[in-house]
Design a protein that fits this description.
The chain is mainly alpha-helical. Helices cover about 45% and strands about 5% of the residues. The strands form three sheets. The chain has a three-stranded antiparallel beta sheet. It has a two-stranded antiparallel sheet with strand order 4-5. This is Endoglucanase.
């Protein structure tokens, strides 16, 4: 999945952190001295689903609608894009900062749409909120691609170095809102390919709800994909320091081109996109999967997504083995296991770790359905893995997030009795502009005091799933430790589908 976007730099932490203090829940956070209290874990997946979707309202940029439910948020960044004569207001802040990074925002939108395509019938009353969350992302991507006829795609708003040097709420930030753009001479096939995937997946999600909007998204997806494929190159080079080290592409752009083509095939049923996948998938087929699914690596999900068609039309196809390899790398009992698990049972791959069990749980559930519908199992050495086993592993990850873990705490804000209080999140940690109209000046004493204070954040970012504990299940509730306490849109997005699945099964 690549490194987390701040593995190399987080300027605000470097400026503000003088000492790190451990804020506990009444037990020691020292390794080896965890006090685990006996408690009864009873998950409420419907509540988790509702809050997971609500989180996205806290990440909104732009003019907020009248039905905004996260009331401590207000309008922000209304002038985005005006410096280049384009309306780029709207969209989502990716995490606890105020930058709109196009690569993870497009991925977030793709996964929200995929969750709806696969599991909207399991969402009940929350389906309308899920579609609203998708549309907030897809509307922005339409704006970002409004000049695609001229081979122009806007892929970021906000200078990350300026932004990360200040601890300002989005409503009155005064950091640079520089726009990063790719074009024919400065391409970015990974971010363009992901944008095409997001638009195509959203088109499919809205196909039966809003035909006109669905068609608009699809037409734009086709254009963006053609641009991404025709002008090949990495935005690491074209955008440079604006993308790295925050969202560098570590896996190359071919997986995003294939990902976009697969979604265009699903949205159009045009065989030319299937031929594109068939002819080009060899370019990634030799890459080790190792649980590759996230904003950077799409490998495992590509194999899972195409398996549905292969099961139906060519069940002996060699590419089906790739999806099976992914499963065998992930199952705890598999002799081919290539993924680490914490002692408490959490899939662990590194910094901002919750993005990994979240994304992998979604594709486990999707693949389990495809296997079950075709009466298939997966063979890992001498061990036979049934579809129900994939569901069990996905459930274990969802339950860990909700409180079935060595800390006996939920890693979702607002869910359960114990949850993170000191998020690495500007909007949540700085008093709301409604309660404190005074502007918080960058590099001021007040700004520093807000970041360093021991008190919980004043604004509850309900539904936010944080980066989570380390490999030994230790979690330190300190906003300076962004790898553990920062939420992101791409952690929450796959959990919309996961919690939808389990909320439906819970009713049975």
């Amino acid at each position: 999945m690549g490194l987390f976007r701040r593995s190399a730099v987080d300027v605000i932490a470097a400026i503000l952190v003088v000492s790190l203090e451990v804020y506990s829940w009444g037990f020691s956070n020292e390794l080896g001295s965890i006090k685990v209290e006996a408690f009864q874990f009873t998950p409420n997946y419907k509540d988790a689903l509702s809050k997971t979707i609500l989180f996205f309202e806290g990440q909104r940029s732009g003019k907020l609608p009248a039905d905004q439910r996260m009331k401590w948020r207000s309008d922000s960044a209304l002038d985005d894009g005006q410096t280049i004569g384009v309306d780029l207001s709207g969209g989502y802040y990716d995490a606890g900062d105020n930058v709109k990074f196009g690569f993870p925002m497009a991925f977030t939108t793709t996964i929200l749409a995929w969750s709806a395509v696969e599991f909207s019938h399991d969402m009940g009353d929350e389906a309308k909120n899920a579609y609203t969350a998708i549309r907030w992302g897809s509307d922005y991507l339409l704006k970002a691609s409004s000049q695609i006829d001229d081979n122009i795609l806007h892929v970021q708003v906000g200078d990350p170095y300026s932004d990360h040097s200040c601890w300002e709420r989005p409503e009155d930030m005064d950091t640079l809102r520089t726009v990063a753009t790719i074009n024919a001479s400065k391409p970015g096939s990974e971010v363009a390919g992901e944008t095409a995937a997001a638009l195509a997946a959203s088109s499919l999600a809205f196909k039966s709800l809003d035909h006109g909007y669905s068609q608009l998204l699809l037409n734009r997806a086709i254009q963006v994909f053609e641009f991404a494929d025709k002008y090949r190159g990495s935005y690491n080079v074209s955008v440079g320091y604006f993308s790295c080290p925050f969202y560098c592409d570590f896996n190359g752009y071919m997986d995003e081109l294939l990902w976009g083509a697969v979604w265009l095939y699903k949205a159009t049923e045009d065989e030319k996109y299937w031929d594109y996948v068939s002819n080009n998938i060899k370019l990634i087929s030799n890459q080790f999967l190792d649980g590759q699914f996230g904003w950077d690596g799409k490998h495992a999900a590509i194999y899972v997504l195409i398996s549905k068609k292969l099961f139906q039309e060519d069940p002996s196809h060699s590419l089906l083995k790739k999806a099976n390899v992914f499963v065998c790398q992930l199952m705890p009992e598999s002799p081919e296991k290539a993924i680490e698990y914490s002692p408490g049972g959490l899939i662990y791959k590194g910094a901002s770790n919750m993005q990994n069990p979240a994304a992998l749980s979604l594709i486990l559930l999707v693949f389990s359905r495809y296997l079950e519908s075709s009466s298939r199992t997966v063979q890992c050495g001498k061990i036979t893995i049934k579809p129900s086993r994939l569901v069990e592993v996905a459930r274990s990850q969802a339950d860990y997030m909700l409180g079935k873990n060595p800390q006996n705490m939920s890693y979702m804000v607002g869910y359960g009795d114990r949850f993170p209080q000191r998020l690495h999140h500007r909007g949540s940690s700085v008093p709301s502009i409604k309660s404190l109209p005074e502007k918080i000046i960058c590099h001021s004493v007040k700004e520093r005091a807000i970041f360093m204070r021991e008190e919980p954040n004043p604004n509850l970012l309900v539904g936010a799933i944080v980066g989570g504990p380390n490999l030994t299940d230790i979690y330190t509730d300190d906003r300076a430790l962004f790898n553990q306490t920062e939420p992101t849109t791409y952690i929450n997005a796959p959990m919309v589908g996961v919690f939808a699945y389990f909320s439906h099964s819970q009713k049975k």
